[in-house]
Amino acid sequence: MKKNFSNNKISGRLQQVSGKSKWLAYALFVCIIIPASSCKKSFLDVVPDNVSTIDNAFVSKAEAEKYLYTCYSYLPTNTDPTYNVGLTAGDEVWVEDPANAIRSTNVLRLPRGGQSASDPIANFMNGTRDASANYRAIRDCNIFIENVSNLSKVPDLDIDTRDRWIAEVKFLKAFYHFVLFRAYGPIPIIDKNLAIDAPIEEIRVKREPVDKVVDYIANLYDEAAAKLPLTILNKASELGRITKPAALAMKAKLLVTAASPLFNGNSDYGSFKDKSGVQLISPTYSAEKWKRAADACKAAIDLCAEQNIKLYKFPEPLIHLSDTTMTQMSIRNAMSEKWNEELIWGLTANNNINYNNFFQSMCAGMYDFDNLSATKTANRPLMGPTLKMAKMFYTQNGVPIDEDKTLDFTNISELRTAKGEDRFNIKEGEVTARLNFNRENRYYADLGFDRGIWYMENSKSKSDENTFWLMARGAELSQSATVPIAGFYMKKCLNWHFEWTSVTYTNYPWPEMRLADLYLLYAEALNEAEGPGGDVYTYINRVRERAGLKTVQEAWTTYSTSPTKYTTKEGMRAIIQRERALELCFEGGRFWDLLRWKAAGKELNANVTGWSISEDTPELYYREISIYSRQFVVPRDYLWPIRESDLLVNQNLVQNPNW
User: Fold this and answer.
1) pTM over 0.90
2) Which of 471, 474, 432, 467 has the alpha carbon at shortest distance from 448?
């Protein structure tokens, strides 16, 4: 993979500042046991320490650049699934751990009811239990902005580079605030770090109302966008750095989140106030928030178009591939082909690159029978799609399986034998479940399933005819420990250059924002603001067209038992939400979508199910069994808990409801 913004510089700078963490832990201990009037350190890290080290960091361009990469280093580690809350806490995948490799402190405990206020999992504020320390990140961003904005500092830094660096860090500062807002709702805004000798009452910051938080983050994105480059020119060393399209796209995601039911007219939080009586989440609905979000989405889309950011299409290969495979490769590679033309912002920090292999190793199914060995994937927790996720994909007609009036899916376990017409999706002559037939291309592109075709670059046949196919019955190959618990693999997430012969992975940036996501955000915001029609249909249909589907209008009119569903705001809302689940599956967004839609209470309170993977015959294998009974507590679990000890340190803070 191409070198991306000097990971060695990040490591060097992190070593330089790593001493802070011990000091902060000691300060927190002192704040708890010593009267508040004698302690001036906040858990939010709004007061810098190691001042002498900070002064040395801005004596030259080279040293300042190290601090710039420190600001980048707090970005989420999304390609390690044991850290990726958005992927593991939702309903798309499930993880079982036959080798007992799941650590007791990681985010894989979240869907098992492990969250608590005494020691929160994925503590985004403090950076404990497998989360980045976002307030420490904000503090470092503030230090950078303050020093680099001072023209007497970093004397060898030219003005254009100075402006760009400041803009990048403003973006990062906005993003770290967004990560906190998405999880906690109302949060303290840390616009500037406080002086070491600041009065204790200044250090005891308060949570700000959601609307104020959103405006603050949006303004930061705007300030950053004004000075950011339109594109990355130095692709050898700067891929992953922030651009103007990324700033506008992330602002759009922020505003869509803020306009969503969790934060817009949520009566559950009518009594949620701070200790001064300030309302922290307004229970009054505002349609204007959706209009503002739609406008932001369209501005980002227009800029992306100007920069030739477009939906990824798999390029015509030298060998002949069927139209079916070409469509599916466009779907797969939109996520896992590195630096493709659809990517608006990809996370490439050192922590993501290191874990990319680990993530892909969970996605690699047993399709290459000549070179596969059980030892290559044994002794790891295996993450795989749930049967619920498999059911969620459309039929080949582009409508849900329980709405298609021309195809019968009432018995998904019914056994069928694949014919020649199925050969690009299912191994001809093999027996598999009815669920695997007559599905849309994203089903076959995204899921690895028993007897399913798995085309890769090193196909032995040099084509998609007679190519790799998957065995996923555990007893059949005596490798039950290596089959994901529900029987499905995240095929989409495995880069198509992977080979079992050498077990080598092609790393790719985590798609924090790609164009299809932005299109669907726009369709959603516009539908809520104005109702269905016009651009609502245009942009969702662009995504569907790349997936080989008919338009929403044609598909529902012709094939659905609810033919007018797309003509109402409520019906179109359901269609858009499902479209997001399918198009963006395994990319870490669905869990946060379920929260902002206030849909988690329904979707995350159910049994996790899958096939009976330890069997070898299709009759025994294709039985839906319960794996785990999930519980999501409403409304408590919609917002993250603040650690109880932090409430003792800062008595101006209030806990989130019901924690």
Assistant:
1) yes
2) 471
